[in-house]
Design brief:
The protein is an alpha+beta fold and 335 residues long. 26% of the residues lie in helices and 27% in strands. The chain is built from 3 helices and 16 strands. The strands form 4 sheets. Strands 7, 8, 10, 11, 12, 13 and 14 form a 7-stranded mixed beta sheet that branches. A 5-stranded mixed beta sheet has the order 1-2-5-16-15. Strands 3-4 form a two-stranded antiparallel ribbon. Strand 1 and strand 2 form a beta hairpin.
Length: 335
């Protein structure tokens, strides 16, 4: 009896060990498969992120080329590949909506657009198609915040055929070069705007008239900005400032207002907003690049010296469209 009992127990233990081995083998297969799928999903998400970066960059670049005159579809392919780790992406460009460019990117393996290098292929999973899409467009800004100075459209001299206008002096004093027949647009204030914060005015195109800030001197708090402009110019850089442009004005002094029609970029050479310090810079005929006609050096004269230029900005969606074309446009992702 003892021997019989011992044999049964021994046989039972052996059977249990065999069953456990089968279960462990099955679980290992499941775990390996789950791990492979997890790795593949991560690969797919990474590939799609790269393709989205390529689509975004491609749409913006092609939209900018269209704005500058000739749509360059090749930019989309180039940027799709440069944003892909394996440099094996392709891009299709759609111009069907006026003023917009849509770029669709996808993976490229030989003649196929499938991502096939996946662990899950070992268990007969189908290839996965990966792609992304972005749409960009350009518009003329209809709102903005910046240096609290508005310029008259009588000063605007940038033609559609030019990338830069002539260098000019924009002065508020009577007899100025472009401030209208009376010499001043608003008596007591040549174009200073009411501030929304120190040395900054928020403006918008449309029926809202922007209030004037009268006086011969600039609003308070501008020394830091002017110091930055001066440092940049002395280092050989450019100071390009986007100014609101008005076509009509009304009222006098603090009761005056300007009707803003759009925004133009002015490449600044020099200025005289006050006497001494950072409030005047390269405003005399002896300064580099200056002439007696451009000089603004006597006592109470106030002016800004420079030229209008064509300028494209890459937008982040902080401004509204709606301005007229004054050579400045914003390229922005729409979706």
């Amino acid at each position: 009896m003892r021997g019989l009992t011992w044999n049964r127990n021994k046989t039972g233990e052996s059977n249990e060990r065999g069953a456990a081995g089968v279960i462990v083998a099955l679980m290992m297969l499941v775990l390996i498969g789950a791990g492979a799928v997890a790795v593949d999903v991560g690969q797919i998400y990474s590939e799609r992120a790269q393709l989205q970066n390529g689509a975004d960059a491609g749409a913006m670049a092609v939209a900018l080329s269209c704005k500058n005159g000739t749509c360059n579809s090749a930019l989309a392919d180039s940027l799709a590949n440069s944003n892909s780790n394996d440099s094996a992406s392709t891009a299709a460009v759609d111009y069907s909506v006026p003023g917009q460019v849509t770029v669709t990117t996808s993976t490229k393996n030989g003649s196929s657009s499938f991502l096939t290098n996946l662990f899950s292929n070992a268990i007969n999973a189908s290839p996965v198609s990966v792609g992304a899409q972005a749409t960009a467009g350009f518009f003329f800004p209809g709102s903005g915040s910046g240096f609290p100075l508005a310029l008259s459209d009588d000063c605007y001299n940038l033609s559609t055929a030019s990338s830069a206008g002539t260098v000019q002096k924009i002065s508020y004093k009577p007899g100025g070069t472009c401030t209208g027949p009376s010499g001043t647009q608003i008596p007591g204030g040549w174009g200073w705007l009411d501030q929304s914060s120190p040395c900054e005015a928020t403006t918008q195109v449309g029926n809202n008239n922007m209030g004037s800030d009268p006086g011969n001197n600039p609003p308070s708090g501008c020394s830091t900005i002017l110091s930055t402009w001066k440092t940049t110019l002395l280092a050989g850089g450019n100071v390009n400032v986007e100014f609101p442009v008005f076509d009509t004005s009304a009222g006098n002094g603090q009761g005056g207002s300007f009707h803003i029609t759009g925004y133009a970029t002015f490449k600044i050479w020099g200025w005289k907003f006050g006497n001494n310090g950072v409030y005047e810079f390269r405003n005399t005929s002896s300064d580099p690049g200056m002439t007696s006609a451009l000089a603004c050096s006597s006592g109470n004269d106030r002016c800004i010296i420079g030229q209008f230029i064509k300028y494209n900005t890459i937008g982040a969606g902080n401004t509204l469209p709606g301005g007229i074309d004054l050579g400045t446009s914003e390229i922005r992702l729409i979706k």
